[in-house]
Amino acid sequence: MPGVSAALVEIAAPFPAQSGWFDEFEPVFMGVRSSGSRGLSAPQQAYAAALPAIPWTSPQTPPAGPCSIFAARLRGLRARSGHVTPSVTPTPNLAGGGFVSCADTEYAFAHSLLDAGVLLDAAAPGSAAAVSLPGAVAVRHHAGVVSAPGWNGQILARRVGNAWLAGEGHAPLRQRLRVLSHLRASVRL
Hints:
nine-stranded antiparallel β-sheet, mainly beta
């Protein structure tokens, strides 16, 4: 525009305070993130697109939804809790791209807690190809696995159809790679 030398863009809550739910997979990509309502009286909200999410805790079976995460046999790997989004809809007018986590699970393994999440393109969750993870680089000697910056440290991820199965945690890289190799995801949109 002629005569305009600057623009101010206000984002009400670009990086909200961390949730009290330690099992929440909280990806932040391209600076786009919206927070939903929190607390015991309100339904839990997935940060990425403020979709309602149903929490579960072991020994409960995770609720049915369009996405699920499960572990192949790995001695000592235990699912502790998680969230499942009962339905996924496109997020219109998403600036800069973003992801929605349609399922997340917190796992305990070898004295560490690791979060896993199924990430879909928030603008077009059913699209044929998974949108790229910003800043992702291939992990040497692990075909199909990438590492990318995330809200809670480095995210390791691999493609699962039109989604990403991603994991994060403060465990050593070798341990996170081992857990990721034993996780499976299902996406039915």
